[in-house]
Amino acid sequence: MAKKSKYIMDRPKFDLMKRTHKKHGHLVWGALHYAQYDMTDKQLKANCLKYAKNEKLDYKLLSVLSDAELAFSGKYATIIVEGGELPEDMEASFKNKIDELLVKAVALKSERKIEAAEKAKTTNTGPVLTVQDRMRIQAETLGAVFDQWVDDLMYGRVKTVSKVTMNPTKTMQAAGFKAGQARWIKKFYEPELLQIKDVLSDKDKELTEAYSHVSKSALVRVQKLLNNIVAEAAVVETVSNAQRKTRKKKAPSTEKLIAKLKYCVSAPELGIASVSPSGIIGASEIWIYNKKYRKLGKYVAQDAAGLTVKGTSIKDFNTSLSIQKTIRKPEQQLKDFMKSGKEKLGKFLSDIKAVDYKLNGRINNDVVILKIFK
């Protein structure tokens, strides 16, 4: 049943709601009031789905949400599908809300798949759903959102890779992804990324022909997006593993030692993340990066007992050998650093043409723990 307004209102003239109209804002708010009180949640949901379908979004995925969950956004969608226009700031906020609803729908659909699979286990003697199966299902469901982004770029519906509307890290975090799900995302999109790279480099003539209907500029944008998805999934995986190891560490003495240690969990903009700080205890060498001052440094233990932690500081390090240097091109130099093994890292700092600075042992929220060696 419709929610009746205490005001007597005629149906709004949606076709007049253009940004050029001098009373545009007044007309929009009147229409929102009408939708709030004179339309049912079911009608508002239908308009929300109609908007998503018109915009080539996954309206079928959105439909798993309830009438009430889509009713709020349905008020704004009603104005658009009826031929009106929203103010620019209101439209941007509305589109962000639709993106959030899509992520919510992904999580709900994944939960329903798992529930259905578990229910099926009790009624048949088929294969048991493993933990890996569950994580793969969750990753596949979220992959529908990423696939929509790829299609939008490939076929020209979207012209730029925006970190606001295409943010893999934010989307995976909203879906509650841990290391296992992020690992599946990498498995899904690494082959696709390599394929796009081969097309752009014209290595495979048949493959290039298969993509001939897509412009080169669109493929470049798709490559950038796929790079972001794979790289950010790797960061989510690293962060999750590091946090899980710290949380499950059995030795109480180690947990107590690192309990007050503050450090930067990850720096997605640089493609790096901290390893578990529990490994510092007894380590012979650790490498850190201060993102605030662009300084790369290493702590070297003063003896065979290794490094330890007290409060928020590293202790028992050799003050002469423990140094740091300012790096000029963090993105490239850190990428090279992360690919290097312990032997190559032996001269990594000496190859940087910069002044040596002694380390003082303090670790804070700007410091990423890059590598630990026992």
Strand order of the largest sheet: 8-7-4-3-9
Span between termini:
69 Å
Name the poorly predicted regions. Answer: none
- Spell the H/E element sequence: HHHHHHHHHHHEEEEEEEHHEE
Cα radius of gyration in angstroms:
27 Å
Task: List the keywords.
single chain, 3 domains, about 50% helix, five-stranded antiparallel beta sheet, 9 strands, about 375 residues, elongated, 13 helices, two-stranded antiparallel ribbon, alpha+beta
Summarize this entry quickly.
This protein is α+β, with helices and mostly antiparallel strands and 374 residues long.
Topology overview:
Layout: H1 24-38, H2 41-54, H3 59-62, H4 67-81, H5 88-121, H6 131-154, H7 168-174, H8 179-201, H9 205-210, H10 216-248, H11 252-258, E1 266-267, E2 272-273, E3 285-290, E4 295-300, E5 308-310, E6 313-315, E7 323-326, H12 330-339, H13 342-345, E8 357-358, E9 367-373
Antiparallel strand pairs: 1-2, 3-4, 3-9, 4-7, 5-6, 7-8
Helix pairs in contact: 1-4, 2-4, 4-5, 5-6, 6-8, 6-10, 7-10, 8-10
